[in-house]
Here is the input.
Amino acid sequence: MAQAREAELGGERLPDNQVMDALRRYAVAVSPTHKGDRWELARLKSIVHDPLADARLPSVTATYTGVSSETVRREMTLLQSVLGVSQAEMRMVAR
Here is the structure.
C-alpha cells in the first residue's frame, strides 16, 4: 500500500514519521491550547506506550479489545485530531 501511495506521489518517498512522533509534537504544540489539556495529555502519554505508537503514520490502523466503547471513542477522536494536525499543519504525513 505504501508503495502505491509513493507511486501516486510521483515517486516521492513517504515521510518516515511514526505515530509516536506525531503524538509528542501534538502534546507540545496543540494540547496546551485545549480546555481539557490535562486529560488529553494523560491519554496521549498512555497511547505512546501502545504498540500503535511504533507504527509509521501512513500505515495506521486501529484494533481495540478489552476496553469500553467510550474509551475507544475518546481515543479514536484524539488520534483523528493528532493525525489531522500532523498532516495539515506539521507536514508529517503526505497529503
